[in-house]
Amino acid sequence: MLGVVNLDKPVGPTSHDMVGMLRRLTGTRRIGHAGTLDPLASGVLPILVGRATRFSEELTGGAKRYDAVIRLGATSATDDAEGPVEVVTGPIPSEEAVREALVAFVGTFDQVPPSFSARKVGGRTAHRAARAGEPIDVPPRSVTIHEITLLEMSTDDAGADVRIDLRCGAGTYVRSLARDVGTSLGTGGYLRSLRRLEAAGLSIDTAVTPDMLEALASEGRLAEVLLPVGDLLPLPRVQLDAEAAVAFRHGSARPVDTASHDGRVGVFAGDEIIGVGSLIGGILKPDKVLPEESSR
User: Fold this and answer.
1) Does domain 64-194 sit in CATH 1.10.3370.10?
2) Residue 192's closest CA among 156, 141, 144?
3) Is 2-62+200-230 assigned to CATH 3.30.2350.10?
4) Which residues form the catalytic set?
5) What is the pLDDT of residues 131-188, one digit of tens each?
């Protein structure tokens, strides 16, 4: 099997739990995912089946879209609702002030990941060190936020919920954004809920739930939801004839006649993805290759 499942992960399970489910349903050990979702998050989780796992890097690195709720009026040790949460006293800002604060985060900037994250520093994982009572300073990294739209804001006696539509680049921590928005407003803030709407070229509108996958598997129809990985690669395409495809699969660099500019490209033989290569000065060099008997 080779393909991608557009899974709608529910709140509760980990991304690894979803990988385990697909391993059970497909009988295939070689399963991965493109872009982790925390247990408290739901939405699009691209599951890579078979040798589609070879393209995890390409599928993880694209733009993403989220429906997120930021809670103002408190902070959280984990920067999300998992807590523990500490109330911050003070006035809640107006909707216009919140809108202005959100706009200030559009662009490319250095973002500090949450203390409870999977980032590693000196061989230590941040969330493990934090749970052991020995939090480590995680260095910031450059992230890009393309657009933030304020969808609604509701207030209560303790604070406010700010719901946003977020479009961002790979590596952006929405928990950190919630924390930093709260800090900029002087109210404190954390991520109350998160649903991923788009990732790896996939949309929540066409995602399938775990229950749907279970039902399809029981009827022997699981292959119906496998999407061709080649259609999702965010790379220019280079088409090879039969002779050139054999050479590519054997690791040979050779000139190709293509209008594509220098850089990484998806390599196809007809409609079939056979790998990823680097195009430099009209010479195509194989980077990742799918053996002929394993492609589809």
Assistant:
1) no
2) 156
3) yes
4) 38
5) 666 666 778 999 999 999 999 999 999 999 999 999 999 999 999 999 999 999 999 9
Domains 64-194 and 235-294 share a fold: no
Contact at 8 Å (CB) between 283 and 274?
A: no
**Domain limits of the chain?**
2-62+200-230, 64-194, 235-294
pTM over 0.85: yes
Q: How far apart are CA 272 and CA 286, in angstroms?
A: 16
Residue the block writes with tokens 């990294």: 141
What strands, in cross-sheet order, belong to the sheet with 263-269?
237-239, 263-269, 272-280, 283-289, 254-255
Give me the CATH topology for the region 235-294.
Answer: 2.30.130
Pairing of strands 283-289, 41-50: unpaired
209-244 pLDDT per residue, tens: 999 999 999 999 999 999 999 999 999 999 999 999
Cβ proximity of 282 and 255 under 8 Å = yes
